[in-house]
């Protein structure tokens, strides 16, 4: 019989299937906050359940309750690189009388009638170029975390 397994004897580290509660912020390189829960309730997830992208989860592996860090997330670890195949040119007439502006996000129906957001990248009187890439694709991010508990 070993007594080394008594509760609280060691700090649990973040590993696959661990239940993690944390505060986080995702920021652009210029410091602009994209998402944060530091002023709200903490988030809880299980490593490997798909709630977090692999790059974010992998950055947390080995951390323990009480740890704080700011981690650089490259596009390949985050939301991927911008894919030119996700830029679609659509005839302007399909937008009817809609007032268009660069950066406007419009909801489109995908092949399975799901919702697919696209951002107006550019337009003229004949054609509209819509970017269907994730808005954070191609961006270097700062992932700020404070681990509250690991089970």
From TrEMBL:
Domain of life: Bacteria
UniProt-listed Gene3D superfamilies: 2.40.10.330, 3.10.50.40
PPIase FKBP-type domain sequence ranges: 17-91
UniProt keyword list: Isomerase, Plasmid, Rotamase
PROSITE patterns named in the record: FKBP_PPIASE
EC numbers: 5.2.1.8
InterPro entries documented for this protein: PPIase_dom_sf (IPR046357), PPIase_FKBP_dom (IPR001179), SlpA/SlyD-like_ins_sf (IPR048261)
Catalytic activity line of the entry: [protein]-peptidylproline (omega=180) = [protein]-peptidylproline (omega=0)
GO molecular function, one term: isomerase activity
Coiled coil start-end: none
Family affiliation: Belongs to the FKBP-type PPIase family.
PANTHER family documented for this protein: FKBP-TYPE 16 KDA PEPTIDYL-PROLYL CIS-TRANS ISOMERASE, FKBP-TYPE PEPTIDYL-PROLYL CIS-TRANS ISOMERASE SLYD
Protein name as it appears in the record: Peptidyl-prolyl cis-trans isomerase
Natural source organism: Amphritea atlantica
